[in-house]
Amino acid sequence: MEQQAKEPVQSQNDEYPRPKLVVVRPGQPQVVPDKGEGWWQKWDGYLSVMKPITWIPVIWSFWCGAVAAGGLAFTVVDMGKLLLGFLLSGPLLCGMGQSINDYFDREVDAVNEPWRAIPSGRLNINQIYQLTGLLGFLGLLAAYYLGQTVLLLAFLGIFLAHNYSAPPLRLKGRTWLGPLCSGISYIFLPWLAASSVWGGISWRSVVLAGIYSLGGIGIMILNDFKSIKGDYQLKLPSVPVVYGTAKAARFAIAIMDGAQLAVVVLLLLEGRLPGAALIGLLILPQIWLQFYFVKKPLALAVWYQARAQNFLVLGMLVAAWVAL
After folding, report:
1. DSSP for residue 123
2. Phi-psi category of residue 293: left, alpha or beta, with phi > 0 → left and psi -120 to 50 → alpha
3. CB half-sphere exposure, 254, CA atoms < 13 A
4. Mean pLDDT rounded to a whole number for the chain
5. DSSP state of 226
6. pLDDT tens for residues 228-287?
7. Helix axes 203-224 and 297-322, enclosed angle (nearest 10)
8. CA-to-CA distance for 157 and 94, rounded, in angstroms?
9. I want to staple 117 with a disulfide (CB 3.0 to 4.6 A). Which of 28, 45, 107, 177 is the partner?
10. What angle do CA 146, 210, 84 make, to 5 degrees?
């Protein structure tokens, strides 16, 4: 009984029917009046739209880029720059992108998660404008301090964050371009930004970051499973909605496994056998978890992602480390 309570309700074949797809564009913003909540309630609302849990993979990618570059030293200056880079990639730019996404996804969130800050009225539209403006401004200041290349990549990250969620491009509503945009923003850009600070952007950094960014497409497909109800009702063409959950699950694991195997092949070609073997071993528990996931993808998407993704990102650090 206890185990049944943890599993989400699903259809008999673990699928949502596929509708005739029309990209839904958000309407005019509805300004929610300020309810005069206390200090903590407001800050809790700000943190909820910034989604601190999403900062972790971006910060991790920045860390991998710093390690792969080979110039990071345990000095006060370098540690200060590293912490500033973590702040830039996580709370500032990723937090800004998440708040933009919450603003343009408020109709979907009203279906999937009506308790969130904007649909519930905890934050009004003006407060979201102020938050995104502040985070973007501070992010650009931090990027300027870290160097011209980081500043350029920060501008590119802001551009992608806006166009991922906002019309007219609204890449999130373009099935495959949305996950690709997220993979670039979460892995490729922070990895290269860190590499530019500690040793310069090498071909190895570009290749490794590029491969793992493509693998990030699979991660983002998995992330779409938890919002499939709202995406289906509003006819947003995410990969699970377009292809069904069974095919989407197989696409996701094939993309993630393929990216990791490509890194293994790259390391083998360079003669880095221990690194290749270690990443290969990290793929094995993912395959074991996938055996269960593909049987009930809608019910087990979050379960699988919470476990398998740990091995994937650990492999990223291994690949970065052996690149020294």
Report:
1. S
2. alpha
3. 6
4. 87
5. G
6. 887 888 788 999 999 999 999 999 999 999 999 999 999 999 999 999 999 999 999 999
7. 170
8. 9
9. 45
10. 20
